[in-house]
Write a structure and sequence with these properties.
This protein has a domain of about 280 residues: FAD/NAD(P)-binding domain, CATH 3.50.50.60. Helix 6 links the parallel strand 11 and strand 12. It has about 525 residues and is of the alpha/beta class. The chain has ten helices and 21 strands. A five-stranded parallel sheet has the order 4-2-1-8-21, covered by helices on one side. The protein has a five-stranded parallel sheet with strand order 10-17-11-12-13. Strands 3-7-6-5 form a four-stranded antiparallel sheet, with no helix packed on it. It is globular. Belongs to the FMO family. InterPro entries: FAD/NAD-bd_sf, Flavin_mOase-like, FMO-like. Keywords: Coiled coil, FAD, Flavoprotein, Oxidoreductase.
Length: about 525
């Protein structure tokens, strides 16, 4: 690998933002260019000003082929009419809604030299106490943007710019770029010696194939959404909702909807694996009805594999995960939500001028981004201590044998210390004060991370207990029973509500508002 002087970074989210600093502090690169397809830095922490699009092409989302490359003009540079496609070409909309907060303590979400500010919302304080470790999404967004808007780094970034194609031509990387304008798109080409991919992998929804789902959505456009497109509980007021997914997004959305939707909220969790960190306690809420896997949908009736069904369904929310795609890198395979050939989830073994930051699954991810960014910068600067290619291949083969050839391959849990220290050793120490230093792994990071998870699980327990108590009180009031110490009189109980098809309930009793949703842990 020859001397690298020109580096392109794709993505200015949390991973890309710390990569900029790691590259700049190596003081060896003449050109550092960052291409961010959104209008600002922050990645998935940047909110949207417009409503999310309706889901289209459900078969492609089910087969993980939805994020296709767009046509490129034959002659570049070029100016073309604003790109119009049936769905966003890169699914660039975020999963932000107004009251979203982190579900992980701010300490393990901070970098070693930069900390997330201690700004807390009243809602979070009400739920978790005055020292709540969780942060509103705007705090994280501002934190990431602050990392980019310092030391002149903002001059490196081209916003509203999508890398439509990255291809190796000789010893150079040729990047075909498209900048979105209000009325037209600008296309051009730039060349680099190396590329850092920091695009993240929580963008393209995965929608499982369900018989009748496409017809359900086409009959009532917008009735099927992915959890990424959830914009708050109010859009489901007085709607009968089925939520699919047993992980943290499905849990948060299901609990949130008991405040506004027709009751119960139906959660398809039976037979699905609970979240590794959070478990499934949220689904014990008395106004959530656990259901088995959906077998098919007939009209507005959702039928489950255990023979039960729910009629007159208004909305289906699919908290079913994401598909990692790299449509701009046709030479790189993405298989089973991982990239084969990545040593330590960072260095592309076939061509070490291509490196990745963020190709890991949940758990201490922000800190892992920093370690990966420093390793990537050292590799490109020629200062890293990488083993021979055959040893790198053996590492991957051993990991596939241990973890599997799927998303679990990228799961660092529970071997955090081993991974952090391995990456730190490969990166090495700064030379003569040049480069970003990585501190030794601190076990308290994991403990604080786990303590934050327990805090959220206890919150669900409190919400569940409060809702059960309120239901009992409502039953007593409806039956005319006088609680102990109550010497007042009671009016006759109201008549029972009319029957609802398939036993669907319509009762709504206010409970403590659920205000959090997933982000750092997916």
């Amino acid at each position: 690998m020859g001397a690298i002087k020109r580096v392109a970074v794709i993505g200015a989210g949390p991973g890309g933002s710390i990569t900029i600093d790691a590259l700049a502090r190596e003081k060896t690169f003449d050109v550092i260019r960052v291409f961010e397809r959104r209008e600002a830095a922050g990645g998935c922490w940047v909110g949207d000003q417009t409503p999310p699009p309706h889901l289209t092409d459900l078969p492609a989302l089910a087969s993980r082929t939805a994020d296709r490359p767009v046509p490129i003009p034959e002659t570049l540079p070029a100016r073309t009419p604003k790109l119009q496609t049936p769905s966003p070409p890169r699914f660039t909309e975020s999963g932000i809604y107004p009251y979203l907060e982190t579900n992980v303590d701010a300490i393990p979400m901070s970098f070693s030299e930069e900390s997330i500010p201690e700004r807390r919302t009243e809602n979070s304080i009400a739920l978790h106490g005055p020292e709540t470790p969780f942060r509103h999404w705007t705090v994280v967004r501002d934190f990431v943007q602050g990392l980019v808007n310092r030391n002149g780094y903002q001059d490196f970034v081209s916003y509203s710019t999508t890398v439509e194609l990255a291809e190796k031509v000789g010893d150079e990387w040729k990047l075909t770029l498209r900048r979105e304008g209000e009325e037209a798109d600008e296309w051009w080409v730039e060349y680099f010696d190396a590329v850092v991919v920091a695009t993240g992998h929580y963008w393209v929804p995965y929608i499982p194939h369900i018989e009748g789902l496409e017809e359900f959505e086409k009959a009532r456009p917008g009735s099927v959404i992915h959890s990424k497109h959830f914009r708050g509980r109010d859009q489901f007021r007085d709607k009968r909702v089925v939520v699919v997914g047993a992980s943290v997004s499905g849990a948060d959305i299901s609990v949130d909807l008991v405040n506004t939707a027709k009751l119960p909220v139906y959660s398809v969790v039976n037979g699905r694996r609970a979240n590794l960190y959070f478990g499934d306690g949220a689904f014990n809420h008395p106004r959530i009805s656990r259901r088995a896997t959906i077998s098919r949908i007939d009209g507005r009736t959702v039928r489950f594999s255990d023979g039960t069904s729910v009629a007159d369904v208004d909305n289906i929310v699919l908290a079913t995960g994401f598909t990692w795609t790299l449509p701009f890198l046709p030479s790189v395979e993405v298989r089973n939500n991982r990239v084969p050939g990545l040593y330590q989830h960072v260095v592309y073994r076939r061509d070490p001028t291509l490196v990745f930051v963020g190709a890991v699954a949940a758990g201490l991810t922000f800190k892992i981004f920093e370690w990966q960014a420093v390793l990537a910068a050292r590799v490109l600067a020629g200062r890293a201590r990488l083993p021979p290619a055959e040893d790198q291949a053996r590492w991957e083969a051993d990991r596939v044998a241990e973890k599997g050839d799927d998303i679990k391959f990228s799961l660092v849990y529970p071997h955090f210390e081993e991974y952090f220290e391995t990456v730190r050793a490969l990166a090495g120490e700064p030379e003569n004060g040049v480069g970003r230093a990585l501190p030794p792994y601190d076990p308290s990071w994991l403990q604080v991370f786990l303590d934050g998870l327990e805090l959220r699980k206890r919150m669900w327990e409190r919400l569940n207990a409060k809702a059960k108590e309120e239901l009992e009180q409502a039953k007593l009031s409806a039956s005319g029973v006088v609680a102990q110490g109550d010497k007042g009189t009671h009016a006759p109980p109201p008549p029972p509500p009319p029957p609802v098809a398939n036993g669907a309930e319509t009762e709504k009793v206010p409970i403590v508002t659920m205000i959090e949703a997933p982000r750092e842990v997916q």
